[in-house]
Amino acid sequence: MSLTKLFTLVFLRKEDEILLGFKKRGFGMNKWNGFGGKVEPNETIVEAAVRELSEESTMSVKPSDLINIAHLEFTFHDEPVLMDVRVFATNTFEGTPKETEEMTPKWFNIKELPFSNMWPDDELWFPYMLEGKKFVGKFHYKGFDTILHHTIEEQESMEAFYANRK
Ligand SMILES: Nc1[nH]c(=O)nc2c1ncn2[C@H]1C[C@H](O)[C@@H](COP(=O)(O)OP(=O)(O)OP(=O)(O)O)O1
């Protein structure tokens, strides 16, 4: 039995660029990542996604503009924790990204992504996201650098995936 923890992860897109943030503290420190964090008990997943994006990058999005593009699960060798990460993307947003306590944001060209300084799983699933696919990715880690095994499955729709899963 694993303890499941729910997280959000948001990517803003602008033509051939994507906004990433350099994490200055905590989980994933010193890595480029999307913006997100834990879903609090008093909020919906989409509300958490909007809040974390704003807290970490100062960018604003409307909940209805966030498209759920993926579901990621991370498990860890010898640790009974399952990270359930809901991934959202949009090209409709307001603001200019600013550095916050947690993140330094930067627009990257999608052909020049800093994979060597990102979570190792990102290089495996970013191509799906960049091709506009919906997908479910499951990654089993040993420590934080080694993926012992993984699966990535394209989906017709994320709504159908969540409706059908047990
Ligand atoms: N292997 C991985 N690959 C990836 O691309 N993103 C990952 C990942 N593992 C976790 N994430 C994302 C999910 C989430 O957006 C973030 C982790 O959330 P945090 O720990 O920063 O949560 P909080 O911001 O709520 O934390 P606090 O610092 O306690 O406020 O990292």
From TrEMBL:
Pfam families, per the entry: NUDIX (PF00293)
Record-linked InterPro entries: 8ODP, NUDIX_hydrolase-like_dom_sf, NUDIX_hydrolase_CS, NUDIX_hydrolase_dom
Main location, first listed in the record: nucleus
Subcellular location: Nucleus
GO cellular component labels: cytoplasm; nucleus
Reaction(s) catalysed (UniProt annotation): 8-oxo-dATP + H2O = 8-oxo-dAMP + diphosphate + H(+); O(6)-methyl-dGTP + H2O = O(6)-methyl-dGMP + diphosphate + H(+); 2-oxo-ATP + H2O = 2-oxo-AMP + diphosphate + H(+); N(6)-methyl-ATP + H2O = N(6)-methyl-AMP + diphosphate + H(+)
GO biological process: DNA protection
Cofactor(s) named in the record: Mg(2+)
One Gene Ontology molecular-function label: 8-oxo-7,8-dihydroguanosine triphosphate pyrophosphatase activity
Nudix hydrolase domain segment(s): 2-131
Keyword terms: Hydrolase, Magnesium, Metal-binding, Nucleus
Entry EC number(s): 3.6.1.56
Function according to Swiss-Prot or TrEMBL: Oxidized purine nucleoside triphosphate hydrolase which is a prominent sanitizer of the oxidized nucleotide pool. Catalyzes the hydrolysis of 2-oxo-dATP (2-hydroxy-dATP) into 2-oxo-dAMP. Also has a significant hydrolase activity toward 2-oxo-ATP, 8-oxo-dGTP and 8-oxo-dATP. Through the hydrolysis of oxidized purine nucleoside triphosphates, prevents their incorporation into DNA and the subsequent transversions A:T to C:G and G:C to T:A. Also catalyzes the hydrolysis of methylated purine nucleoside triphosphate preventing their integration into DNA.
Similarity comment: Belongs to the Nudix hydrolase family.
Quaternary assembly: Monomer.
Protein name as it appears in the record: Oxidized purine nucleoside triphosphate hydrolase
